[in-house]
TrEMBL record, chains A, B:
Protein name (database record): LacI family DNA-binding transcriptional regulator
UniProt keyword terms in alphabetical order: DNA-binding, Transcription, Transcription regulation
GO molecular function annotation: DNA-binding transcription factor activity; transcription cis-regulatory region binding
Domain HTH lacI-type: 6-61
InterPro entries associated with the record: HTH_LacI, LacI/GalR-like_sensor, Lambda_DNA-bd_dom_sf, Peripla_BP_I
RNA-binding among keywords: no
Pfam family, one: LacI
Amino acid sequence: MNKNKLTLKDVALQLGVSTATISNAFNRPDQLSAARREAILAECEKIGYTGPNKAAQILRKGRSNIVALILADSIAYTVSDPVASTFIKGVSRVLQQQGKHLLLYAGDSESILDVVDFVDGFICYGAPRNPKLAEEVVRQTKPAITVDFNIDGLPSINIDNEKAAYEVASQAIANDDHVAILGLRLIDSPSTCRIYDSPLIEVESSISHRRLDGYIRAIEEKGLIIENDWIWHIPESDRSFAKQAAKEVLHSSPRPNTVLCMSDIIALELLQSALSLGIKVPEELKITGFDGIEEAERTRPNLTTVCQASDKKGEMAATALLESRDKDEILPFEIKRGETF
Amino acid sequence: MNKNKLTLKDVALQLGVSTATISNAFNRPDQLSAARREAILAECEKIGYTGPNKAAQILRKGRSNIVALILADSIAYTVSDPVASTFIKGVSRVLQQQGKHLLLYAGDSESILDVVDFVDGFICYGAPRNPKLAEEVVRQTKPAITVDFNIDGLPSINIDNEKAAYEVASQAIANDDHVAILGLRLIDSPSTCRIYDSPLIEVESSISHRRLDGYIRAIEEKGLIIENDWIWHIPESDRSFAKQAAKEVLHSSPRPNTVLCMSDIIALELLQSALSLGIKVPEELKITGFDGIEEAERTRPNLTTVCQASDKKGEMAATALLESRDKDEILPFEIKRGETF
DNA sequence: CTGTTAGCGCATTCAT
DNA sequence: ATGAATGCGCTAACAG
């Protein structure tokens, strides 16, 4: 038994036909008679040739069937985030169904240059932590699509974050409430803190700032105002950061009775902290979340939140990329009324 | 501006040097003077050549820097499983650090043939749902390693599941207990059920069966016996399946007062079901889990479980693959005593 | 329907 | 330290 892999040429030689015929047997059934094709494939099977070398095909065809999913953060962080992993779920479902492969690409990598040549396209899920990646995606020529943020001329998939935030806040807030906001990545700080007068970061296309806009619109519409020291910045949707923020809010005086949270993870930490302090939810504290993760339905009381169907978003992103759709999509959201107000 | 990508040849021509020199400038710094190299790289930067085409490199060098992680199940299922995603976390950390890329490969795919030619190696995390994949992994020649199961001559990474199960069970069980087991993938059934006399599946290398062995050894050592109708089969570590099983156990008579669960997800569902029925844990019901997921520490009461450091396992798997270590590893585990017994 | 040929873009001898 | 030539394994044109 020969350990050296058979090549198309070897096989052609052995079967006494030309390389093109073997190639066609595998790639273009219409180029030869079914009988001949069957015979050839059977022979190949017998001699242990499993088909044309994929590496060579990639070079030759310029297509690999690999799609890169560029994440906002490291892979490590992303796979343990329920929203992101639900998105990945949707993406992977479509890709697998279409015979495509999924390459996970960290948003804090140096560069996409080492995959751009062999990948078929890019799905960018959230603004990559390393902004250089976004620039590189624009500069290259493979199809690409962004989700939850925008890049120059690329099609994008989003929900209307401003409107969603506005709606959930509107429903939660009463005219005489004292409102606080637990925000996500609002300013450039590695730790949880009130934003005070710190400059907001990447304000243009940041979903957090759209949500902030929506919250503030709702607040002002009730005739209230919110000062910057009642707005917290949380560097990432991580439980321990969130817990810190929750603690600060609940121990600040006067204690807010309505807290708008920019993610369910944050809201759940706040909820748990509040309960363990004996604060009654929603009587003494109303809470809204954002995202609609599964865990938020399981808690008691369950969370009122903005449901965005992340898996659908993933499916849509993959589909849009594969069909090279070119227009932006705004996906619907749904306010899911729970028991936290 | 030329939209056609520059090739090594183009650049060589423009700079008036040979292609080999350009290639060496990028790949083999020792083959030319530092000064010359710098000059060439600078020129390349200026004319917009970002380096040798990776697709061509894959063919030429036979290396892509892509590692395939073959999962037991679909990607969709796997990313939302806390144990698996923790494992991925560990893998990805090492890969990123080594400049390797991660291709997620579903265990229910048809075949690995369409990636085997360009991938640098395989990490197989759990026995793939499609057993053909495991065979294909053996037959091919790229480095490969298995985790949580075994394949023929491949190195593997495991914990001693039998011993871990034995230890946690030993600690939990008292001499006059009535014990039940909530098992995972014990028989070939798509739904939750007691195993009765159904034939056990893939008994040899299945971690579930090793755990079962350990549980039973502990039980018998206490002078007890467990009948097959007190052992449940749960098709996958999924909350709704687990909830069903929990319900069955808690409503069976006589109700067991000790339940050994083969995953934390299962244990957590049981815990929650028990509490909502007003059953006191651990006074009326002792529960053990398996895995040591984060959520199991957060619950009240928190779970007594077998902690296996899945992220370390992932790191170890990636490292072992990249360094082509050839021997099996048995990783340590730790019984984490919580409040559920 | 089949065979011949010319690259895809590069890395690596082997000369110089 | 450098340049010319060879082929990694395949596919798409084209010719027959």
